[in-house]
Amino acid sequence: MRIKILAAVLLCLVFTSSIYSQNKYDISQFYNESIRFVKQPLNWEGSDWLKLGLISAGTILTMQADQPIRDAVLRDQSFNGTIPEQIGRIWGRGYATIFFAGAFGLHGLITDDQSTKKIGFEIVQVTLYAGAVTQFLKMTVGRARPYTNEGSGNYHPFSLWNDDYHSFPSGDVTLAFSLSTVLSKNSKSSFLKIISYLPAVLTMASRINRDMHWSSDTFLAAAIGYFVGDWVANLHEEQESSMEVSNTFPLTIRIKL
Q1: For the segment 172-187, what is each residue's pLDDT rounded down to a tens digit?
Q2: What digits encode the pLDDT tens for the residues 44-63?
Q3: What is the pTM of this model?
């Protein structure tokens, strides 16, 4: 079984634990927020369930086009080996995640830049959370990969160790959209916010082109990476906003006195 998602998570944690141990974004915060993430469905509101329903409906609808899309891609392999295809392939690999988490983390440590510490921390978090969700689905659903030629509707539930039946959803696309979402959410430029997703979209195309995943596999994986990344980034944004208010309030009181 390929364990690239778990390997990326473990390497990120090992590499960054020393970086964040003396900062605000530390292991204790990571642990507390991980518990909060696991419990999050218990606190979902109507809008959250609506999002889940839309993602599920979108996945099912995309499944109807899985075989036609695969047939079209196999007839035209002109995308294979091109620079965009290679960019997408690399962006979805675990070492791209490790590189960015390490680069931002080291920059934050050396320059004492809280913003880059935060980005590195969030990359590790989203990789762990989204990767865990994806790996759980892979191993329980057991969907056959396209290259097995068993058809888009062939499933072998609980195929824990057979990677041929770990098609749904795509691990590479999950990692790609997790990384892109963190970078996008931390960018102040509208252009960069949008362009950050371009390599992730190329990852989707690469995985389909290489006959490793069905289109619906990549659709669900993209949704997982995006929504988990959005949840983590919004959580930290709310925390920082609360801290700014609490730090400003006592100062206001002193001025009035």
Answers
A1: 999 999 999 999 999 9
A2: 999 999 999 999 999 999 99
A3: 0.85
Cα 95 to Cα 234: distance, rounded to the nearest angstrom: 25
Domain count, the chain: 1
Range of the domain at 71: 4-37+58-246
* Residues in Cβ contact with 60 at an 8 Å cutoff, skipping those fewer than 6 apart: 216
* DSSP H or E stretch at residue 93: none
Q: The domain that contains 192 carries what CATH number? A: 1.20.144
φ/ψ of residue 161, rounded to 5: -115, 5
Number of H helices, E strands in the chain: 11, 0
Classify residue 182 as exposed, middle or buried by CB count within 10 Å of its CB (0-12, 13-18, 19+).
buried
Asked whether residue 45 is assigned to any structural domain, the reply reads: no
Which amino acid appears at position 150 of this protein? E
For residue 26, CA distances in Å to 23, 30, 55, 117, 195 come to: 6, 6, 32, 10, 30
